[in-house]
Design a protein that fits this description.
By secondary structure, the chain is mainly beta. The protein contains two helices and twelve strands. A twelve-stranded antiparallel barrel has the order 1-2-3-4-5-6-7-8-9-10-11-12.
């Protein structure tokens, strides 16, 4: 039976020519890894009576976990590392006219790291959501769009672009292994080397909240 986690695969085509040359130059002096990080996302919790996500790297090591108890607090979702340490906490924004979420470092409740809003502009059908950075505590109402998410979550085909339209992460279906086709609950997250994979994984969790259909959604 094929394993859920992938073999080591290098996809150089996902790195733009400009970024590739820049990182090649950096690598010659710093030894920095130029390959995208490839994660296998399994839309399933490893804990009984929980729903969530389990994420592996190319060696089969557990990287991220989301374990939400069915009877637990549905007002927030916590993205954890393999040991269970809280990395980011996602909370639904209250009293908002649009579907918006705030993402905090760890389990803090102040000064959100960024916010994510579902696209409601029907003239831009490719856009799924946009990610905005929040201002400082003295200027908390100032927001700057940092990333745009486009594609189709139901088809597991999404791309995250930064504010300069550079592809920094991609969600895609996992290829068949020895003739066995994986369902929509197992897919790949490919993250460019210049970004921490914690943020794209949090965006995957939010896409599932916005477009996951039958998935368990949390409310405020």
């Amino acid at each position: 039976m094929p394993k859920v986690y992938p073999k080591t695969v290098v996809i150089p085509s996902l790195v733009s020519s400009d970024n590739k040359q820049r990182f090649l130059n950096e690598s010659s002096t710093t030894g920095r890894n130029l390959n995208p990080e490839i994660l296998t996302v399994w839309k399933k919790s490893l804990l009984f009576n929980c729903y969530g996500f389990t994420v592996f790297d190319t060696k089969g090591n557990l990287v991220f976990r989301v374990d939400n108890y069915a009877a637990g607090n549905k007002a927030e979702i916590v993205l954890m590392d393999a040991s269970g340490r809280s990395l980011l906490t996602i909370r639904r924004k209250r009293l908002s006219l649009t579907e918006s979420w705030l993402v905090y470092d760890g389990e803090t409740t102040v000064n959100p790291r960024f916010s994510v809003t579902k696209n409601v502009n029907f003239l831009n059908t490719k856009s799924l959501a946009h990610v905005s950075t929040t201002g400082s505590p003295k200027n908390r109402y100032k927001k700057n769009v940092a990333y745009e998410i486009e594609g189709s979550y139901s088809q597991r085909s999404c791309v995250v672009y930064d504010d300069r339209r550079r592809r920094i992460a991609e969600l895609k279906r996992k290829e068949a292994v020895r003739g066995v086709v994986f369902g929509g609950d197992v897919f790949r997250l490919v993250v460019e080397p210049e970004i921490d994979s914690t943020v794209p994984m949090a965006l995957v969790v939010l896409l599932d909240q916005m477009f996951g259909g039958h998935s368990r959604k949390f409310t405020s």
